[in-house]
Amino acid sequence: EWALIADGVAIKDVYKVLKTPEGVDRAFKKLDTIKKDVVWWTTGAQPPQLLADGQVVMTSAWNGRIYDANKNSGKHFEIVWDAEQPGFDVWAIPKGTPRLDDAYKFIAFASSPQVQADVTRYIAYGLGNKDAMALVDPAILPHLPTAPEHMAHAQLSDRAFWLDKRDELRQRFTAWLSK
Fold first, then answer.
1. Using alpha carbons only, how large is the chain's radius of gyration in Å?
2. pLDDT score for 89
3. How far apart, in whole angstroms, are the C-alpha atoms of residue 96 and residue 117?
4. Hey, where are the domains in the chain?
């Protein structure tokens, strides 16, 4: 997605382009232009460390790790929210659980507006409940990926596309990396 955006595709058109063989080729051609300069990371702790060590001048990262580096390690990293790719988590209840009522009570508690807002006092991850936004400390709000001004420019994942194309594109990406 980011390769296409970097090549001039509007966020709203990324999947329209990526769903074509020509779009996939275009994305890889754009990746070719930066391949020798990319440092690939595999754990969430690496991006702020790569920045702090001067090994990279920019990186993708989990926003909470950047927020923590700034707040607790005296760093001054800036997040660029254009084309952010928010990740989403879900709660699941195992079928047949003997504690179904407790599971529903926990989900109701964990997703309640006040609890969601309270979590942002510890880490600046996004809110799953829009009603929590009004309860967030205004000083924290600019650091949340789900702040309205950030979501206005988000590049949301097309889950159906990735379910269909994940294996094919992962194989192509792995082959591309090895060249």
1. 19
2. 85
3. 32
4. 1-38+154-179, 43-80, 86-150
